[in-house]
Amino acid sequence: MIWDMKHESMSRSELEALQLGRLKNTVSRCYDLAPHYENAMDKAGVRPCDIHSLADLRKLPFTVKDDLRSNYPYGLFAVPMKEVVRMHTSTGTTGKPTLVGYTRNDLEIWTEICARIITAAGVTSDDIAQIAFNYGLFTGGLGMHQGMERVGASVIPASTGNTHRHLTLMQDFGTTALACTPSYALHLADEADEQGMRGKLNLKWGLFGAEPWTEQMRTEIEAKLGLCATDNYGLSEVIGPGVSGECHEYRDGMHIAEDHFLVEIIDPETLETLDYGKQGELVITTLTKEAMPVLRYRTGDITRLNPEPCKCGRTLARMEKVTSRTDDMLIIRGVNIFPSQVESALLEIEETQPHYMLVVYREGALDGLEVWVEVSETLFSDEMKELRRTEERIAKKLESVLDLSVKVKLVEPRTIARSEGKANRVIDLREEQ
Amino acid sequence: MKVKQLSIFLENQSGRLAEVMGSLGKEGVNIRALSLADTSGFGILRLILNDIQKGRAVLKEQGFTVSETDVIAVEIPDKPGGLANVLSVLAGKSINIEYMYAFVEKSQENAVVIFRVEDIDNAISALQSGGVQILEAEQVYSL
Question: Does A420 have pLDDT greater than 60?
């Protein structure tokens, strides 16, 4: 089933005409209402009237995460606060979140595009949908919630945590659709097995997103939970979940809401725009966002685009599963983590340049983060209880900054390889396991 | 009255202790007393050396994290109840012991116990007034 037949099966020429009108409008609004874009466009020597075709998009300057941070909190808003009805955040590179805002109309569009990916994933008004994303500042919970309600599913806003309760709800309420991160789905599957629930659950559809996952994980989740698992993609900087999602029929790329987002693939080194089919960094320009439109936002996600219509009937371009990034951002249990966040937290504790390493591992089905910290003379004590206290202090600090529980391991100096230039701060064991 | 102890941070890895001992031995630094405290992840090695300055320099050179701490060395008769008496003196003054370790002198009938306490000056005066024999630092280094 297709939720929005008119838009999801548009011909490319119709779509491009719609996109161009919306692009011109977005660029004008950015230029007139958000000083950051005015400055950036002046610097690039481009004015709103220079946009005559979709190809003119390339004249516009890029927007990066740092721009969102340096304009924190409201600098990129293009409407008066009285029109903003919702705010969400995304984690930032130095612990400060980046703020995003929504007008009533933004929420309506967001709900609609979530309804699209939810429908594509197989969910209908006959389903009982359990949402195991965090409800709060994170866009995942409320975003999927709105979309599920719009589709007419019976929504269980279970939020995160308490795996046992999740399984009880699933069993008692007869949950048929599950929305969460793929790693949490695996964790639920393992727990369900342990509690002898395999085969007793009524699950049909799994909508998984907010972190990268592999085809092997998909196979495993499907086998254990007995559902059809689809991938979906979104980021709070442009809206949240709903940017793209797979159809359950073919699962051959995620259908992008191109009527609301103009997508490009660039070479992250040369910044040249690449052709369809070439792998590169995904860049998104919002076309209908009112409260906080973004021009050419560099997502950092590596993927490729396929403009061919899908056999499911959708004509909008598809993007491949995102498996890597251009920067050192890690995604652990749906939480975005930058090594620099760890660095600045340690700097506060240690008052000298810390030497540290992030080790990402998978225990059972859940991802975990261990932070190795070299014991300098300032951290060292001849008393065991003091060293224990130091470990706890670092763990608490990191947990509050990262919003993720962290294991801290104290290691000897020079354990962590010093490298020239940019140090490699991350060991990701998930890829090997 | 205060004895300098060298503490070293060690990861729980085979061969680490041997490396420390090897480095000290090669430079002619002798160990007077030793204790090792450990958890599953790391350990703290505490040493009384004949030449702490040299020992410290050698280990720092090797990249170890080290620190110096003041401890008390007490001589007690090597017989049952000897340690109990010393501990009751400290307990009587409500002095907490962070950790302690003991060894027996080579040529005498006495045992030496190293104490690390919260308040070292109070502990020294308590032990003195309790009639406990405290060793001078030089005596310990040259045991």
Answer: no
With beta carbons less than 8 A apart as the criterion, state whether A410 and B41 touch. Answer: yes
CA–CA dist A90, A138 (Å, integer): 7
Q: Which residue of A has its CA nearest to B70?
A: A382
**CA A249 to chain CA centroid, nearest Å:** 24
Asked if the Cβ–Cβ distance from A382 to B116 is below 8 Å, we say yes
SS3 A27: helix
Q: Do B64 and A413 touch (CB under 8 A)?
A: yes
Q: Answer yes or no: do A317 and A381 share one domain.
A: no
Q: Is A395 on the interface with B (CB under 8 A)?
A: no
Model ipTM value: 0.88
Query: Does A207 reside within a domain?
Result: yes
What is the DSSP-derived secondary structure letter of residue B12? S
- Name the residue with higher pLDDT: B132 or A212: B132
Domain count of the fold of chain A? 2
- Cβ within 8 Å, pair A412-B10: yes
Range of the domain at A416: 332-431
| pLDDT tens digits, B56-100 | 999 998 889 999 999 999 999 888 888 998 999 999 999 999 999
| A135: three-class secondary structure by DSSP | coil
pLDDT digits (tens, 9 = 90+) for A24-50: 999 999 999 999 999 999 999 999 999
| A98 SS3 class | strand
> Quick one: A90 and A200 in the same domain?
yes
Give residue-wise pLDDT tens across range A368-402. Answer: 999 999 898 888 999 999 999 999 999 999 998 88
pLDDT interval class at A421 (50, 70, 90): very low
CA distance, residue A422 to nearest chain B CA (Å): 22
Scanning A253-338, the segments in alpha helix (DSSP H) are none
Check: CB of residue A266 under 8 Å from CB of residue A273: yes
What CATH number has the domain bearing residue A348? 3.30.300.30
Contacts of A381 in chain B (CB under 8 A): 7, 67
> Do residues B90 and B123 make contact, with C-beta atoms less than 8 angstroms apart?
yes
Residue with tokens 């060991």: A427
**What CA–CA distance (Å, rounded) separates B103 from A177?**
68
